[in-house]
């Protein structure tokens, strides 16, 4: 939550973190985008996530799902599938998570931690299948990030490997996707690819000064805050595949 | 919680973070100050907050409230008002939060995120009114911070704008107010103004080395830890208004 | 949780953070080690901790306990003792925590925050006694860290004092102990002493560049990520006592 909020503030967005379903009816109708992250899921948080997702859908607000460790347990997989039935605009995960969701069957033996044990390329077909079944834009993070609406597939080749050695960079870039989707909800694929590219560019610039994962984390956020359009345009690597 | 705890440790205080009402009867009577932050409020945390606040009042310990996003929902506003009825020593918020509490009416259309959408100057009258009705010292953070006991009004002109681009700086300075109030509970207005000024000075010194919000966060805490009295005295800008 | 996860990632481990007892039956049997930290204990988290600990024991996985602020309340002390009855491989705390557990009697007047108010040397006898009664390896952090299986006592003389001015360094080193114990569960004492030494070496190297607690935190993680075996061997200070 800390890194996601600092990412949003650095990018000029205005985050608020709410957990309680009691607050959603007052708050969710006024947001520009909703971001749900199942990272430390518990049974009393899930109903609040569903209430918020339903409200976002009803009030036509884009909502974005980060299905953290979707394959780690049957409970978590089921929770993610229930949330996906509430029509997220975008789902972003790593290859393991997207494959688990697309398969919708629990393969416990391949489960590791929240970091990914599959290449993102393995997950392109799974992502297309999930996009088609859910109606969401699906993004798979990895050495190359892939974004698809089920039909088009876009590759984003920004970022540096050390970003995977910082906890919550995935969660943070999903937050940034929500901010980008808030600006133009009708172009969720473009918003998602742009957010992934911009976050990756910030990581690349940060890496020039970093001596390890912790200083990269700092320089990445500083770089994100200082980015100008010229730099972004000269560095972004987005290809239609 | 992370930034607040690191702020307290850097300043020489000894923080402990407890959530459960079961622990309060054993723990709260031994603290020097209690800090309640409603940031990620949930319905099961609120009773624990009330138990801790009641114990602090009964044992004559200063307790400090950060009414994060007080106007974001009816539930949150009501929770803050209930906590305020338990006699906090100090309430610190941004202009939007203090105005929401003073109005004690829910104006959903003006609600943004946890960052402020009002100037602190707008909130001075609201702060005086809230101080008079609650008996607490009320502080409003902004470009200029205002502190009032309902009668006197003090302005603090330290800090740098980029501190608002770091999540939880408000929460952290409220923690520092609690530490300062612990030293001399009978001078809550002076403690509050001093904590705001010292935190702002740490931000100013940190800004000299910072390249963005994340490095400012680091340098701010480093500076707070390294502050000496001469530096503080030469830099503090507190005016009676 | 943030610092612990970043410590593990920097050291090459693969952390996942789960809170819910519903997930444990699916997830815990597949971990290489389980780490339970009672930092912000609440009554609904305790049952999940017990379920996870029981599963780890049943599936012969090492599990590591950080009894944060064990003496802060009767509830917390009882919770820690209940967890200890579920056979952790390693318990790591500061002197106050280990003494509270060994005495298993609540001395509220000596309770401070989560930082330690006893020297680690005071706690050696308490640690031996706790190791013997629990069957766990017990580590006491301090200016010198002590590790004992109830019979052997090992001292670790790495680290720098400023590490105590960063919140969660204790929690982070316990996470690292879990990662080391995962590699060779049958040598828990050696794993524990090595993890404490390596984390201390990372702190020493980090301190060479640090200007305060926040930059130390960053440089410590960077150093941990960059450590090579030659550096570790030349710097580690472990003595059999």
From TrEMBL, chains A, B, C:
Q: Which CDD domains match?
A: THZ_kinase
GO biological process terms, semicolon-separated: thiamine diphosphate biosynthetic process; thiamine salvage
Q: What is its EC number?
A: 2.7.1.50
Q: Which catalysed reactions does the entry list for this protein?
A: 5-(2-hydroxyethyl)-4-methylthiazole + ATP = 4-methyl-5-(2-phosphooxyethyl)-thiazole + ADP + H(+)
Q: Which Pfam families match?
A: HK (PF02110)
Gene3D superfamilies per record: 3.40.1190.20
Cofactors required: Mg(2+)
Q: Give the record's pathway.
A: Cofactor biosynthesis; thiamine diphosphate biosynthesis; 4-methyl-5-(2-phosphoethyl)-thiazole from 5-(2-hydroxyethyl)-4-methylthiazole: step 1/1
For this protein, what is any one GO molecular function term? magnesium ion binding
The entry's keywords: ATP-binding, Kinase, Magnesium, Metal-binding, Nucleotide-binding, Thiamine biosynthesis, Transferase
What task does this protein carry out?
Thiazole kinase involved in thiamine salvage pathway.
Similarity field: Belongs to the Thz kinase family.
Q: Which HAMAP family match?
A: Thz_kinase
UniProt protein name:
Hydroxyethylthiazole kinase
Source organism of this protein record:
Hibiscus syriacus (Rose of Sharon)
């Amino acid at each position: 939550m800390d890194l996601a909020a600092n990412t949003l503030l650095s990018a000029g967005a205005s985050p608020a973190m709410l957990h309680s379903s009691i607050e959603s009816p007052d708050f969710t109708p006024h947001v520009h985008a909703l971001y749900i992250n199942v990272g430390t899921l518990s049974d009393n948080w899930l109903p609040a996530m569903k209430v918020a997702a339903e409200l976002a859908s009803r009030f036509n607000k884009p909502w974005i799902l980060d299905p953290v460790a979707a394959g780690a347990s049957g409970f978590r997989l089921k929770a993610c599938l229930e949330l996906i039935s509430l029509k997220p605009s975008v789902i972003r995960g790593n290859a393991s998570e997207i494959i688990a969701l697309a398969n919708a069957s629990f393969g416990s033996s391949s489960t590791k931690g929240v970091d990914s044990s599959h290449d993102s390329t393995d997950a392109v077909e799974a992502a297309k299948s999930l996009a088609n079944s859910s109606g969401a834009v699906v993004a798979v993070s990895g050495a190359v990030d892939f974004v698809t609406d089920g039909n088009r597939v876009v590759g984003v080749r920004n970022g540096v490997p050390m970003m995977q050695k910082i906890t919550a960079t995935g969660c943070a870039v999903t937050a940034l996707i929500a901010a980008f989707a808030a600006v133009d909800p009708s172009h969720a694929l473009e918003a998602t690819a742009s957010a992934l590219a911009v976050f990756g560019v910030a990581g690349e610039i940060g890496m020039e000064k970093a001596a390890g994962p912790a200083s990269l984390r700092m320089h990445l956020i500083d770089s994100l805050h200082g980015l100008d359009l010229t730099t972004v345009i000269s560095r972004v690597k987005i290809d239609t595949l």
